[in-house]
Design a protein that fits this description.
Elements: E1 7-11, H1 16-27, E2 31-36, H2 39-51, E3 56-60, H3 69-80, E4 85-88, H4 103-130, E5 136-140, H5 153-173, E6 179-185, H6 191-196, H7 199-208, H8 217-228, E7 239-242
Parallel strand pairs: 1-2, 1-4, 2-3, 4-5, 5-6, 6-7
Helix pairs in contact: 1-8, 3-4, 4-5
This protein binds nicotinamide-adenine-dinucleotide.
């Protein structure tokens, strides 16, 4: 139980990657606050964790309500008796041609993926500094923030902002012993992807990912488990890709065709 006695907040924890992260941290012994806008789903996720003996509470919050984020983080820290870990996972995506993107698309996506993530990070970091806690912040970015992909004008650039914000916050919070890292998933089987990826999109990913398949939410949760664990105490400002090799790849000529 390497996280016994630690308290963690996970945003977007009712489903998909966030839920897998919450389950992983609970198995490591952390007490949890699950934040999500999906009322019944987040209550159900917290209840399922409690049924397995974990300390878990649900907070229903739409992260688009930016001025409610700081009070929710502080109240969660108070309710748990402390706060050592924040995982900023809540995010939304869109896939459409650059020429069809509107300013409103950017506003909607940046509001959740960037502004809400910033508001939660600042609130948690301020609490950690105030209480002299050498805490951990992990931001769920995306490989879309590292490489230019078609259809990803608003989403990809929002995740690039997450990566840079991770690096800036890591610099500024290092003197307090707080680490800030990002995980950049490739395609992961979740509701978000099932709703967005057509068969052709799916075939495109499978062709581009060297491991030739989608990942699972648990693969991302393992990376988060490392970054919040004691073994990562000297790791900060890092972007850990969980992407079957996508970000590292260049031309994908099958090895057998090389000569
Ligand atoms: N699935 C992928 O392939 C993939 C790849 C790269 C990055 N990501 C990132 O991982 C994160 C989780 O993605 P997922 O695939 O698990 O998504 P998902 O849609 O399956 O789950 C997201 C969860 O966040 C919650 N949420 C969304 N908007 C919210 C808001 N405004 N306020 C509160 N809760 C909100 C949803 O209710 C849901 O429970 C996102 O940041 C996403 O950008 C996903």
């Amino acid at each position: 139980m390497p996280l016994r006695g630690k308290r963690a907040i996970v945003t977007g924890a009712a489903a998909g990657i966030g839920r897998a992260i919450a389950e992983r941290l609970a198995r490591m012994g952390a007490a949890l606050t699950l934040i999500d806008r999906a009322h019944e789903a987040v209550e159900g996720a917290a209840e399922a964790l409690r049924a397995r003996g974990a300390h878990a509470r649900a907070v229903v919050l739409d992260m688009a309500e930016l001025d409610q984020i700081e009070p929710a983080i502080r109240e969660s820290a108070r309710a748990m008796g402390g706060l050592e870990i924040l995982v900023n996972n809540a995010g939304i995506a869109a896939q459409k041609p650059f020429l069809e993107h509107s300013v409103a698309d950017f506003e909607r996506i940046y509001r959740i993926n960037v502004l809400a993530l910033f508001a939660a990070s600042r609130a948690a970091a301020a609490w950690m500094v105030e209480h002299r806690v050498p805490g951990r912040i992990v931001n769920i970015a995306s490989v879309a923030g590292l490489r230019g992909s078609t259809g990803r004008a608003a989403y990809g650039s929002s995740k690039a902002a997450v990566i840079n914000l991770t690096q800036v916050a890591a610099q500024e919070l290092a003197p307090y012993g707080i680490t800030v890292n990002a995980v950049a998933p490739g395609p992961i089987e979740t509701d978000l992807v099932r709703a967005m990826h057509s068969e052709r999109t799916r075939a495109g990913w499978i062709r581009e990912v060297p491991m030739g398949r989608y990942g699972e939410p648990e693969d991302v949760a393992e990376a988060v488990a490392y970054l919040v664990g004691d073994g990562a105490r000297y790791v900060t400002g890092h972007v850990l890709c969980v992407d079957g090799g996508f970000a590292a790849a260049g031309l994908l000529i099958p090895v057998g065709d090389l000569r």
